[in-house]
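Re: weekly structure request thread

Next one in the queue (99 aa):
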Amino acid sequence: MSLQGKIAIVTGSARGIGASTAVALAKEGANVVVNYVAPSSKVHAESVAKAIQSAGSQALIVQADLGSLEALELIVKKTVEKFGRIDILVYSYSLNSLN
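Done, posted below.
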């Protein structure tokens, strides 16, 4: 399966399953938007972005708590500004974020 040139948003992708999913998509050729919520997760998001770039794909990091309409609009706007479209959306979250 090739995702060459596809554009993916992976929410909650600074760590865990979201991070693994983002890198796996990149290894298949997708350019990936790395999303994180907490400012303390920025360093993890940057690490995921580096792994995506090492796989030969482009990464965009967006901090946004997708529990609000404004944040959803922000991530879509930034994605379309950089890549022109969205092909894939993977909604991932941590159970820890529910506490």
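The beta strands are 7-10, 31-36, 59-63, 88-90. The mean pLDDT is 93.
Next request, please.
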